[in-house]
Design a protein that fits this description.
Strand order of the largest sheet: 10-9-11-12-14-13
Distance between the termini: 91 Å
Shape: elongated
Number of strands: 20
Number of helices: 26
Length: 653
């Protein structure tokens, strides 16, 4: 047996031992994909074992995250920092080897994966980032940003719509340094993949402007490594390498869905080892270890060469070098309040119009800020004017046209933000945020600072009707841990929300109006607390409101105070930030009146914990209607007089 096949067989057996030891995991893909990851790591994957943030490293995304045991075993062979104890702790609490790859848990993991298809989109985002930075900082003879993005995927990933959206965009953008490694075994959890998916995958990729390379023998290391070499020569298209494999290779269940997610018994492990001529347990023989050592030595030589070239780059391109260092070290410590003129703050503007103005100002101070919309730039107005449109012919453009692909837009932005190490933005209508929830959830899980900008935030969008009028979306977004949801009442609050979003290294959702909002009297020192008193001191009733309903609450206050009823109005631009304040501060804000009323054009029940049993939640409890905003205000009882009447009824006046 040649040494390469021996290494592959040992990876297979070690992966299955890890899974059996954990009594949990997915041996099927570990056995089929071992030749793919081995060929990639041994001959192509450029990494630094000492510095996992090495700027020139290749990016590897395990979109088929259930291949984690194989991923960790391969990383162990090639000295990425895992120990035998780490492998034996696979899927154990707080280990470095969790059930699916997790960013910030395992040093070399580039992105958390597991939900199928997300990883492909993340990889597209990383490939976009490489093009952006490469065009900006590479110099003739010194391509310092020139890495490849590799992505391991399987049949399940390619059935997901989010993957297809991203693949289509990648072909359009001609991301030639993106290489998709497809473990094609025609098996999913429930059986043969062709029961639900009979398409010609190769032709589909070709139709989306991809190179397609078929590896008929997916067990052949030589065929796979040659295919990757060929893919790396592409100059104008991304490449998919279709490796025809056998799920569960080497076991009695090979080729069957029964092997997908069921650990092998100890007896089956021993039989597998016998079939693959493996004698070691939880380790490698010396000749196999030597392959990993020599690969690291080769990579170290490449790193040394790169570092020498980088010194020459610094010498021959001093200004470009200075810009690159500044770019990588920029911490976005900008104060948005100093960027906005008072005349803008005092204008009556819609949320989307105010955001358009702020985005332009902020982008001038944040050269790394990029993003785009799902074919809605003209409606959401989330667009950096004068910054150009990103594309194959303009890689310096900062505005990305994602097309009508909300789900992949979010997932691509996750990958892009991770590559740029910087906030990025994306936008659609609030009602369509549901399309993106899995990607938003992954942003929050990974702590990735994607700024989701949702406009047309309530029934007040009017004539488009209930399909476009968000009702439940605010509550849905607020349920996601580690996501800050901002719903500003005017431009000044929006500025404060931007400062919070750039300060907190977590994803954020900006919920913005289509309709005009009047400028209110508030202070940045209050806004950054997430909830504050905007009018009044102590009274008979305290109204808690957000967004456009703050202005409505102030009108209600005016009516009731004309009838000798004292009203306090509190604005809550961000419930999540308010919750992080001290108990004393929260108690002070919420104790201005015995009777509390929440006012928000949503059905979010979060307000009950603030208003208590004696309070009144005024919201929208059903889907919207098609009609003018004025008609709908009256229909939903969201007029100052009708709300004032409800409060008087609450007070039994």
């Amino acid at each position: 047996m040649n040494i390469n096949q021996k290494c592959i067989n040992h990876l297979r057996c070690l992966s299955c031992e890890m899974i059996t030891n954990a009594n949990s995991g997915h041996p099927g893909i570990a056995l089929s994909s071992a030749p793919i990851l081995y060929a990639l790591f041994k001959d192509h994957y450029f990494y630094d074992v000492k510095d996992h943030n090495f700027i020139a490293r290749d990016r590897l995304v395990i979109s088929a995250g259930h291949a984690s045991a194989l991923y960790y075993a391969t990383a162990y062979l090639f000295n990425l920092g895992l120990t035998v104890n780490d492998l034996k702790s696979f899927r154990k609490l707080n280990s470095k080897t969790p059930g699916h790859p997790e960013l910030n848990t395992t040093n070399f993991v580039e992105v958390s994966t597991g939900p199928l298809g997300q990883g492909i989109s993340n990889a597209v985002g990383m490939a976009i980032g490489q093009v952006m930075l490469g065009k900006r900082f590479n110099a003739q003879r010194y391509p310092v940003i020139n890495n490849y993005t590799y992505c391991l995927t399987g049949d399940g990933c390619l059935m997901e719509g989010v993957a297809q959206e991203a693949i289509s965009l990648a072909g359009t953008l001609k991301l030639n340094k993106l290489i998709l490694l497809y473990d094609y075994n025609n098996i999913t959890i429930d059986g043969k993949a062709d029961v639900a998916n009979s398409e010609n995958v190769a032709k589909k990729f070709k139709a989306m402007n991809w190179n397609v390379i078929n590896v008929r023998n997916g067990n052949s290391y030589y065929s796979i490594t040659r295919a990757i070499s060929k893919a790396k020569k592409s100059t104008s298209k991304p490449t998919v390498i279709i490796c025809h494999t056998i799920i569960g290779y080497g076991t009695s269940k090979a080729g069957s869905n029964a092997i997908h997610g069921k650990p092998l018994s100890p007896a089956e492990i021993e039989l597998l080892k016998k079939n693959l001529f493996v004698e070691t347990s939880f380790g490698f023989p010396e000749d196999v270890k030597m392959v990993g050592t020599k690969t690291c030595e080769k990579n170290n030589q490449l790193i040394e060469k790169w570092n020498n070239n980088f010194v020459l780059y610094q010498t021959t391109n001093p200004e470009l070098y200075k810009q690159l260092v500044a770019f990588m070290e920029d911490k976005n410590n900008i104060d948005v309040t100093k960027l906005v003129k008072d005349e803008i703050l005092n204008q009556s503007l819609s949320g989307r119009d105010a955001n358009e103005l702020l985005l332009k100002e902020i982008s001038q101070k944040m050269p790394r800020l990029v993003g785009g919309t799902a074919d809605l730039a003209s409606s959401t107005k989330v667009y950096i004017n004068g910054a150009g449109n990103f594309g194959a012919n303009n890689p310096r453009g900062k505005n990305i046209f994602f097309g009508v692909r909300e789900h992949s837009m979010g997932a691509i932005c996750n990958g892009l933000a991770l590559y740029l190490k910087n906030p990025v933005f994306c936008s659609t209508f609030m009602a369509f945020s549901n399309y993106m929830l899995p990607a938003i959830r992954m942003s929050a899980l990974m702590n990735v600072p994607v700024m989701y900008m949702f406009t047309h935030d309530s029934y007040k969008v009017g004539e488009d009707g209930p399909s476009h009028q968000s009702v439940e979306q605010l509550g849905t977004l607020r349920l996601i841990p580690n996501l800050n949801v901002y719903r500003p009442c005017d431009t000044r609050e929006l500025v404060g929300c931007y400062n919070l979003a750039l300060k907190h290294n977590c994803p954020s959702a900006f919920v913005l109006t289509k309709q005009t909002l009047s400028a209110q009297n508030s202070k940045y020192s209050d806004i950054i607390k997430g909830g504050y008193i905007i009018s009044g001191d102590y009274g008979d009733v305290e109204i808690l409101a957000t967004g456009s309903e703050v202005e409505l609450a102030l009108k209600v206050k005016e009516i009731l105070e004309g009838q000798d009823i004292k009203i306090v109005v509190a604005s809550f631009p961000c419930v999540e930030v308010f919750e992080k304040q001290s108990a004393k501060y929260k108690q002070d804000i919420l104790s201005r009146a015995k009777i509390k009323v929440s006012l928000e054009a949503s059905n979010d029940n979060v307000w009950y914990k603030y208003i208590g049993e004696a309070g009144l939640r005024i919201g929208i409890n059903d889907f919207g209607k098609s009609g003018s905003m004025k008609e709908l205000d009256n229909y939903f009882d969201f007029t100052p007089n009708k709300i004032a009447r409800k409060i008087k009824n609450l007070l039994k006046i």
